[in-house]
TrEMBL record:
It comes from Rhodoglobus vestalii. The keyword DNA-binding applies. This is DNA-binding transcriptional regulator LsrR (DeoR family). Keywords: DNA-binding, Transcription, Transcription regulation. Belongs to the SorC transcriptional regulatory family. Residues 1-58 form the HTH crp-type domain. It comes from the Bacteria.
Amino acid sequence: MLGRVAALHYLHGMNHQEIADLLGLSRVQVTRALAKARREGIVEIRIHSDEPIFPDLQVALASRYGIASTWIAPSFPEPNETLASVGTLGAACLQSALRPGATVAVGLSTTLASIAPHFGPDQLDVTIVPAIGSRPGARRSVSPHEVARQLADAAGARAYHLPAPYLASSKLSAAMIRSEPDVASALELARHADIGLFGLGGVTHGSGTVVDTTMSDEKVSQLIARGAVGDISGSFFDLGGRFVTGPVDDRMIGLTYAEILALPVRIGVAFGRDKVQVIKAALTGGIITALVTDYETANALTT
């Protein structure tokens, strides 16, 4: 039924009432069927235009922080709807930056998982690799390996695995893991990536994967005392975008702060009231070269 309703509407130009009369349905049933057809991938809509949704706000954001690439999605009362909206523009932003043969390094962030469903379906000659290890057995967070694989599957690209946890049990263990050939080669590939795709985490519990999964209240307090306001793929920074030493830096398996900043293009995908200060610091310090966020967050960043 979904396919019939979708074909009548999108291919044959029939309106909701005409379809309802033809198939013996109500207009509400037709509307719900069309919405479900989009959710289930029966209908895919492509808009061949690069016109921004909020041009004035985009210009204000770019002017204030000196950033050339800003992507602003609509905000919704339901957080999951906003997440999907941001994911849609995140996919568009990434695809606009890709060139044949490019390599993309993917950071540690649950927000990045929202991009994959909207990525592709063009077959892309690109490579996607994690910029940091994964959290084995994690339930609440999505690993960079999973995001890399999902993006590659969506676009027919190549995905590399970084076979390591993002946090080793000790400094010695971390050094040994980094020296493993498969780990070393994946990290080397990430270091020379053309594009970095990152989320931005905060320093309060509930606002970032690293804080939520690795740090006690005492360690968080120590970070805040040093001036930390957020992290990018496990590396913490202050209001000016300067690196702040964290309690688990020597145990992390992934790109260092300096290596992240050396990537030519660094796309930050983040939104929400608890991320405004973090995003502002990342923009002020030049940590990210492109931003994908929602209307409410962008508005807060410009006022």
